[in-house]
């Protein structure tokens, strides 16, 4: 799966000679632009397996590099460096260090799913982007993205109570991301709600924000979901080789505490 796009060649990998004569022919300047030769030795042969073990990455092996995902991508239209097709290529080639060069923009996927609708192979590229973001966070390459924190806050509320309450969801998300509730857009939204929503609905919303609603008879479902989440996390840690690392870190921490 070779990459031929000029836009994917890093500027630092290009070399241009101001003065160069080859076999008596002056090829100075633009004509003497070459790609810097380099040898990649730090392949991660399990990289595709690691991504496939995370939610959304299960079908990454189906990709045949047609580029439909990147062509349809909302973010790529604004930032050409956001290139799902290229990152899938790097994952399948095991080029982890090359992938990490874009770690600060991979999480910017807006989940519009245009890529998923365009993909002829049902790779589910939007899911792959989520899996990549999760992988970066689990491996310690990046802090948790705002999108990841929102997903966790949302899931925690559903598992705990069987439903969500928007006010608590926003409050919890803002608290975890260090944001103030006094944001202009949020204040304006509340003002419009007070002006236009029926009093009965406003009363129910206010009551829900004080006393968190819970789905009746949710206990058994909550236990089942909690067990499933724990199993999935353990499976993901094993796939990423994190179990041994976590055990070693705990052992070191206990030894330090003992000293």
The radius of gyration computed from the alpha-carbon positions, rounded to a whole number of angstroms, is: 24 Å
Low-pLDDT regions = 244-259
Largest sheet: 2 strands, antiparallel
Which term fits the overall shape? elongated
Q: How does the helix and strand content classify structurally?
A: mainly alpha
Strand percentage: under 5%
Note the total helix count.
13
Total number of β-strand segments?
4
Order of helices and strands: EEEEHHHHHHHHHHHHH
For the termini, the CA-CA separation is 53 Å
Average the pLDDT over all residues and give the rounded result. 84
Describe the strand arrangement of the main beta sheet, using strand numbers.
Answer: 1-4
Brief overview, please?
With 259 residues, the chain is mostly helical.
Describe this protein's structure.
The chain has 259 residues and is mainly alpha-helical. Among the domains are: 6-35, no CATH class; 47-138, no CATH class; 146-197, no CATH class. It is built from 13 helices and four strands. The protein has helices spanning 47-52, 68-72, 74-78, 84-93, 96-100, 114-118, 125-138, 146-161, 166-177, 184-196, 199-210, 219-239, 242-258; strands at 14-16, 21-22, 25-26, 33-35. The strands form two sheets. A two-stranded antiparallel sheet has the order 1-4. A hairpin with a 2-residue loop joins strand 2 (21-22) and strand 3. Helix 8 crosses helix 9. The N and C termini lie far apart (53 Å). Mean pLDDT is 84; it is low at 244-259.
């Amino acid at each position: 799966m070779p990459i031929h796009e000029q836009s994917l060649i890093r500027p630092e990998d290009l070399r241009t000679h101001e003065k160069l004569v080859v076999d008596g022919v002056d090829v100075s300047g633009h004509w003497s632009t070459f790609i810097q030769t380099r040898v990649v030795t730090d392949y991660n042969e399990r990289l595709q397996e690691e991504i496939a073990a995370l939610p959304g990455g299960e079908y990454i092996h189906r990709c045949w590099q047609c580029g439909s995902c990147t062509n349809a991508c909302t973010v790529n239209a604004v930032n050409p460096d956001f290139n799902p097709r290229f990152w899938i290529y790097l994952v399948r080639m095991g080029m982890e260090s090359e992938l990490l060069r874009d770690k600060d923009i991979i999480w910017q996927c807006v989940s519009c799913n245009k890529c998923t609708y365009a993909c002829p192979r049902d790779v589910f590229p939007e899911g792959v982007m989520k899996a990549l973001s999760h992988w970066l966070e689990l491996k310690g390459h990046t802090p948790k993205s705002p999108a990841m924190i929102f997903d966790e806050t949302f899931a925690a509320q559903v598992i705990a109570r069987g439903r969500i309450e928007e006010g608590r969801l926003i409050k919890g998300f803002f608290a975890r991301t260090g944001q103030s509730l006094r944001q202009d857009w949020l204040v304006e939204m509340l003002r419009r709600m007070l002006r236009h929503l029926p009093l009965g609905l406003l009363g129910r919303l206010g009551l829900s924000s004080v006393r968190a609603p819970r789905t009746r008879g949710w206990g058994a479902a909550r236990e089942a979901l909690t067990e499933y989440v724990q199993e999935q996390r353990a499976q993901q840690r094993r796939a990423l080789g994190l179990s041994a690392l976590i055990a070693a870190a705990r052992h070191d921490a206990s030894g330090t505490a003992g000293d």
